[in-house]
Write a structure and sequence with these properties.
Layout lengths: L1 E8 L9 E8 L2 E2 H10 L35 E14 L2 E13 L2 E11 L2 E12 L2 E14 L7 H6 L1 E14 L2 H7 L1 E14 L3 H12 L8 H11 L1 E14 L2 E11 L2 E11 L4 E10 L3 H4 L8 E11 L9 E3 L1 H6 L1
Length: 334
Amino acid sequence: QVSGQLDLVAAQSRESRPKVSGRLNNNQIDAVPIYLALLKGERPFESPNAGNPTDTEPHPIWPDSPFNLAALRLFDANVSIGTSSLKLSPALVVSNVNSQVNIESGVLDVKLSKGRLLGGGVVATGRLSPEQAGAKLAINLTLKDALLRRVASGGLLEQKLKGRADIDIAAEGQALSPRALAIALAGKGTARIKSGRVPGLASTELTQVADSIVLAETNAEDIGNVIDGRVTNGTVNVGNQSMKLALRDGTLTMSPFVVRSGDIASASNRTSFDLVRGMIDSQWDIPTRLNRAIADGVDPQKPLPPVRITYSGVLGELAKIAPRVSIGDLQREL
C-alpha cells in the first residue's frame, strides 16, 4: 500500500528537466529489482517478466552489462520515502526506514537517516554518479548495537550467537559495469563486538580431549569424532573485540583478532566476506595445551599443533554452514 503526495514541476526550458518532489510511504519495498532496472535503463516498477514471460532465471545482484544511467537524466527529484520494510536482499531487511532520494543532473544521492537492521540502528549515505568510464559510487554506513543472533534465522546457530556489534565503513569506486564496480570498490572501517559469543571449540574443551588421549583414556583414532562433537555443540566467548575492516578487490576483510583467557591466547580468528559472490570464510585456530597430562609428568617438549576450524558458505544461509575441522597434525603428534 502506497500513500503520500508527489508534485511535478514541468521543465521550464530545453536545458532544464521536470522535477518531482514530495513524500511517499509504502509498507514494503524490494530494492533489488528497482536497483537492477535503473542500472539497465529500464522502467524500475515494471514487472521483470513483462517483456519476456518465460524468463524465470534469477538476476545477478552485480550484472556484467555496462551501466546505463540515462533514466537519471530525464528528471530531477527530491523525495522523502518511508517504509516499514526495505528489502536489500532475501536475508537483509531494513525496517522503520526514513530516507531521502535526490536526483540532480543525473547524479543520484540517497540518505538513510533512520532505520533498524539486525536489531540495531543504521544510517547511511550513497552517491551514484555517471562518468565517462561507467559510473562512480561512494557509500558510508554506520550500524550501532546490532544483535549477533539476528544474522541467523532460527535454529541452533541463533541460540549460540550472543552479543552486539557496531560497524562503520566508507568506500568508493568507479567502473564500467556493476560487477566491475563491486570489485573496484575500496574502503575501510571498523567493527566492534561487545560481549560476544559464537559457535566453536573452547580451548578448555580441546585441553580435556588432548589430556584424555595422552593419558590413554581415549583412543587417538577417535579424536576426530570427539572434536567434531564438541565443535557442533560448543561455543566460544569472544568478549569485546575491535577489528579494522578493509574492502578491496570485492572482498571485505576483518583484521585478525585473538580471544584471551587471562594472559593466555585461547583462539585466533581471520574472517573475510566475498561481496561479489555473497560468501563468507571464517577461520579459527585453537591452540592445543595439556593440563592433567603435564601434572602426571608428561612433557610434550614442544607446542602441540592447533586445531583449525573453518566456516565457509553463503552469507544469506549462515545456519546451513557446517564447520570443517582440521586435526591431522595434532592426531599424528598425539
